[in-house]
């Protein structure tokens, strides 16, 4: 069969493109996407009370879709494009084939692949914020919050830290896969937004059991395994660094889980599933900024720290610090992401291996990317302390950025729609907000009311009968 004259094979597979790297990057992007859809959709929908299952899962579903459109519309170029100011790129669309098919700014792959990978990374960041707002934020307010926070917060942090033209990137900050850009940002933004929205109804705060523990574990499992794409895709190449990053990710996470369970057992007498999931998340978050630039023994130490420090802040400090008690954070996003992400960023500055950093960043500058441990070991202590200072400066920048921007966004949204649900919606949950219920289950003392179909419901002691279209059926 003769190829059409206007089809140029070299453009479909140019010399600069590495097919293996491109396939790897598309695979890792899909794994990251699965962390949100369905990972966090399942995790959020099952960790909350039954009446909030749809609302919680739907927040993640909506945010994923909205972010992808905003990303190709203007976000990618604001994060990784030409510099507008020292902390932000110029807005621009990423829709033209001439732009999408050319080589990406990093790696041997097309820009289209880079755009997709970064879009799913950004999507999970916004969805993590939702975890701090479950059970009371007005869904219409959430609809507005997603594109506004994405535009005025995430793009600034991404450009400053990840883009080669960003000011923190030029200083030499190490954030392998998003400890600062993603997790610290999400944790601080979620905590700030939760402050402005206010707490859940008092009875929901007192009694908030998960509605399905097995599904909760399934969602957590998707999040854990999907992290192979999260950290393994950060180098934009199927390399030795990718393999090391994935191994370190899972070693740190396993260590963090075991540490958390040990502390639960010692202080509360028994391990818990919720504790294991929290320990999993803190381990994943803590290793993210360091995954491919530290040795495996360092990943184990980071796992011990990530399984113990956030445990202490969540189980002990949370009940003693007035601000932490005041802000309602239903699934502890502040502890699992802000605390763990900040810890990971600082520990990265401590344990980063100079050789691994040079392999990742493709530089030969011996004065950059030097962990303090190796600075002390090699007689380059000032360079090691400088790296620690850069890491702390980046952490401070991200914290201030998200407190200020998130507060302004919440204030602005409050001028348009209420930030908080009405009392009726807080009382009735999904049925009042969406006209739907997650589970068609019958419980003692509850009735399934078929409002949409004008069904009549008859309750007996053991069974329920539903009349629909003139026929009575036993349920």
From TrEMBL:
GO biological process terms held by the UniProt record: ammonium transmembrane transport
UniProt domain Ammonium transporter AmtB-like: residue ranges: 23-438
Alphabetically ordered keywords of this record: Ammonia transport, Membrane, Transmembrane, Transmembrane helix, Transport
Subcellular location: Cell membrane
Top-level taxon: Eukaryota
GO cellular component, one term: plasma membrane
Membrane-protein topology: Multi-pass membrane protein
First-listed, main subcellular location of the protein, grouped into a coarse class: membrane
GO molecular function: ammonium channel activity
Transmembrane segments: 23-45, 57-76, 105-130, 142-162, 174-198, 210-230, 236-263, 284-312, 332-353, 392-417
InterPro entries membership: Ammonium/urea_transptr (IPR029020), Ammonium_transpt (IPR001905), Ammonium_transpt_CS (IPR018047), Na/solute_symporter_CS (IPR018212), NH4_transpt_AmtB-like_dom (IPR024041), RhesusRHD (IPR002229)
NCBIfam families: amt (TIGR00836)
Family membership: Belongs to the ammonia transporter channel (TC 1.A.11.2) family.
Name of the molecule in the record: Ammonium transporter
Taxonomic placement: Eukaryota, Viridiplantae, Streptophyta, Embryophyta, Tracheophyta
Gene: LOC107893227
